[in-house]
Amino acid sequence: MDKSLNTDRFLEVMGNYPTGVTVVTTTNDLKVPLGLTVNSFASVSLDPLLVLWSIDNSVSTYPVFTQTDHFAINVLANDQADICSSFAIKDIDRFSQCEWEFSNRNLPIISGAAGVLQCKTFKRIEAGDHMILIGEVIDILSTDKQPLLYHRRKMGGIPDSFYE
């Protein structure tokens, strides 16, 4: 089969798979906050508590994220679509677009997130044109906010009818 046909079909199927939306954050060597929008996020293990996410090899912050010892997964709330968009745009000061603060572990945390998992890097795995980063969860912030979802290039919350 034609490779582009396989890629197109793959993207079609994956685009029809709803996911939550996160912003992964860390700091560089100068303690400047860095972050990017990520929907390739999943839980891995309960003992120890492990999560994973992946980063494209071509992303400008790739060297920092693949070398950092700590990162935070900010699970965006359903009213934070603008933050998702801001952290997906290149060459802007992403952190000036939202409220945030440094955590007690010196990681940038986005205010109003549905939840935050602060992690220490557990393992890095090269996988095609991405690096999979597995983090051990070392601190958790949880709220009762609904998560932001991504489906077919659109963002939104869980409809109330879902719970009926």
Automatic annotation (TrEMBL):
Q: Where is the Flavin reductase like domain?
A: 14-157
Lineage, uppermost ranks: Bacteria, Bacillati, Bacillota, Bacilli, Bacillales
Q: List all membrane-crossing ranges.
A: none
Which of UniProt's keywords are assigned here?
Oxidoreductase
Superkingdom, natural source: Bacteria
Which PANTHER family does this entry report, sorted A to Z?
Answer: FLAVIN REDUCTASE (PTHR30466), FLAVIN-DEPENDENT MONOOXYGENASE, REDUCTASE SUBUNIT HSAB (PTHR30466:SF11)
Report the protein name in the record.
Oxygenase
Give one GO term, molecular function aspect.
Answer: FMN binding
